[in-house]
Structure formats: structure tokens, C-alpha cells
Amino acid sequence: MDAPNFIDHDLWGSLQPLNETNLFRMDFLKIFSLITIGRHPQKNHFVLPGQRISNQHCEILWEDKSVVVKDMSSNGTWINEQLLGKGKSQLLHDGDLIAFGTAMPQDSEDYRFVFHTHTTDLQEFDRGELYLHYEISHKLGSGSFGTVSKGMCLATGEWVAIKVITPPKSFGKGSVKMCVNMAREVSIMSNIKHPNICELKDAFHHEHDGSLNLVMELVRGGDLYAHIQAGLVDDEDAARFITWQICDALAYLHSHGITHRDVKPDNILLTDDLPPIVKLADFGLAKIVDDYTMLRTDCGTPEYNPPEVYREAANGYDHLADSWAVGTIVFAMLAKYMPMTVSTDDPQRNELDDWDTLIGWDLLNESGCTLEGKQFTWLLLRSDPKERMTVKNAVKQKWIAPWLDEMRKTRDEVLAARGACRYLDYREDYRAEGEGEEADSKA
């Protein structure tokens, strides 16, 4: 069918024909994220009648500000006069030339179009070594250390997250510290592998601007902070499964002498599975700790720092600082409030050695959580590190131990399912989200 020209705010993209004699503009409405183009009138949103057009020639998908074209034809789909190839996918950018059946006009058939984005917010980036292997789609987020963008691996079609860290132009202490953090993150993440730690897939250093580009596993479900705020951690079982995965990841790190030092809900990503798989991220502040070295840097996020961080100049601290952060997160998931009743700049944080009186235990009691949940949280939020539970021992507690085998089995099953389709392209991702009723009927 030939779509009319809708107002742009109703569209996510369009194909403008180079030859407007016999063809109309194809407008892609927001209500249809998947568009099919081909010769068969009953199987496609847009029909091209040419002899070199396949019954189902291609699919174009709009997904989270990205546009992907998949060639399904025998005679080919060309993007900027380059043959895509049957079964292959590629990102489509504003201004790209796309041709169906042939790259150049054949007699009266001219199926060349210019693609235009409307709401995809695609961006241009400087070229470099990274772009020989990956194509960047759009920005996912930004912070003081750089940006995170969504990208696609050119070799496999796999979606990834690309973290671009650019040091400040000045050569002051801040620049040196950032470079140290950059090198530390790559060094640590390239040597660890755990199902609950966000995987580092590749790293590139661009000499022209000094930036470091980290290609990370793309985790689609958002972070734990957003889940807590949205009320998605709605029962104790959900909190338990998330907590166990966090503890398992940290126990792995601690066994390798690594303290994270910035454990907080913002740095805990969740997959879009049900139940979600935890992916611990952001190792810029992590540091190797051995028996002879105590951490003495005031870092991390104040709301999740234990008492010893405030006294670090005198005594230092170790991996038990991560245990306190986990306790704060568990408290927040169970009670829906932060544990500390005073602000981060309250002098009592520095003056008091024992913070027990500063914690709102009544909030936890009123939350309705089990006695085992309260005990578990209490063991993590001990002011004296010597009394505080290690994340390794968390699995021995009554709040975790009876469910441990079941949680391990659940995680393994979800990971196995994800591994089976790890490198599948957008079509399978789309159907997993958009065809739930059909999938249920086949179960």
C-alpha cells in the first residue's frame, strides 16, 4: 500500500524516492515499529511490483531510537550502493541511500530511496579504529566521565553498549586521576568473567582525542535504582534473588582481591528477563586490595559509604565496605527507604563510631519483611567492619541458604536461554517482546 504523507510527529522515518514519477514517499508510522517491503501485496506494508523485487524483500525495524534494515531478498538490498546480503542486518542512518533489487535503475524500474529519520535522534561521531568493527546508533546516557551509546557489532549484528571516556583537556590532577581510572577499569574488567558482571567485549584508545572506548555488553532492563523507584522490586523474593546475584558477583571480585568501592543501585544493571539477571557495572573506582594494602581514598557515593570510609585517613578500609553498600541496597529494597536517618553532610557521620542509632530500623520493622530478612540486613550494616558479614558468607544466612539451589537453577536457565540467542539479530528480539500471546499459545 502507498501511505499518505502524515505529519512528521506521527512518524519515526520515511523513504523518499529519487524517482517520484511512479512512486510515493513511504511514511513509517509510530504504531508500526516493524515495516516489511516486498512484491507480495498480502505480506508487506509497502508493495514494490518490480520483477527484481522479492515477495518479502526486506524488513525495517525501529527499536529504541535505532533503525535496522534486514535484507531478505534474492536480488539484494543496497545501502549507499553497497550490497547488504540476504539474512544480514545493518543500521540505517538519516540520509542513507537504500535501493531494492538493483543498485542502479534498470529500464523503467528505479527503486532507490533516501531514508530520513524523524524521532530517532541518530548522531554522527568522529571516525576511528572503533568504527572499523562497530557502528554507533545513538546516545543512551552521559555523565561527568563521558557518554554511553548503543552500537552494533559489524561482524555479528550483536547490539552492544559503547562507553566513551574522554579525559579533560587540561593536564591538571583531575586529568591524571581520570586516566588512572580509565586504565584501571580496562585492566580489571579484561581479567574478570562472571554471569553477574557486565562483560567487557572490546577496548579502543583513540590517540587524536585521548578517549577510551569500552565496548560493553548491552543490558536492556535499566538499573536497579529505576526498578526500585518504579516499585518493580515488589516482594521479598524479588529482593532476595537480586541480592544473591549482587553478593555472588562481589564475592567473585573479592576472591580476586578486587574491591568495587562504588556499589549502588545506579551501577547495578538488570536484564529484561523475568526474573532479571543482575549485571554489576562501572569499575572506574575499583581497586586491587591485598593483605598489605588498605584503601585510603575517600571515594564512592556517600549514601552507600560505611563509617570507616570517613575515618580512612587513620585506619583505612577493605572489601567490607562493599558489604555495607549491599546492606544499604537491601534495606532500600525491603523498606522502600534509605537506612540512614541523617544527611550525608551531618557531622554525626564523622563523630560517631557506631552508626546503629542513625539507622531507621523501625522502617525495616514496619515493612513487613521476614525476621530472616531483617537479620540479614542487620549483619551487613554493622558499623564495626570486624562484625560485618562478608558477601561470601551471605549465602550461609537463613534469608538466602534455603533458596540458594533454586536461585542458581533459575539464573542458569535464564542465562542458557539468553546464550542460545545471544548473537541473533533484531528480528528475534522483536518477536520475543511483541509476540507474547502467540508464544504462550505454543507453550
From TrEMBL:
Residues annotated as binding ATP: K163
Annotated SUPFAM superfamilies: Protein kinase-like (PK-like), SMAD/FHA domain
Domain FHA, first and last residues per copy: 35-84
Domain Protein kinase: 134-404
Matching CDD domains: FHA (cd00060)
Superkingdom in the source lineage: Eukaryota
InterPro entries in the record: FHA_dom, Kinase-like_dom_sf, Prot_kinase_dom, Protein_kinase_ATP_BS, Ser/Thr_kinase_AS, SMAD_FHA_dom_sf
Keywords: ATP-binding, Kinase, Nucleotide-binding, Serine/threonine-protein kinase, Transferase
Regions that span the bilayer: none
MF annotations from Gene Ontology: ATP binding; protein serine/threonine kinase activity
Pfam families: FHA (PF00498), Pkinase (PF00069)
Transferase as UniProt keyword: yes
Family statement drawn from the similarity comment of this UniProt entry: Belongs to the protein kinase superfamily. CAMK Ser/Thr protein kinase family. CHEK2 subfamily.
Name the UniProt record assigns to this protein: Kinase-like protein
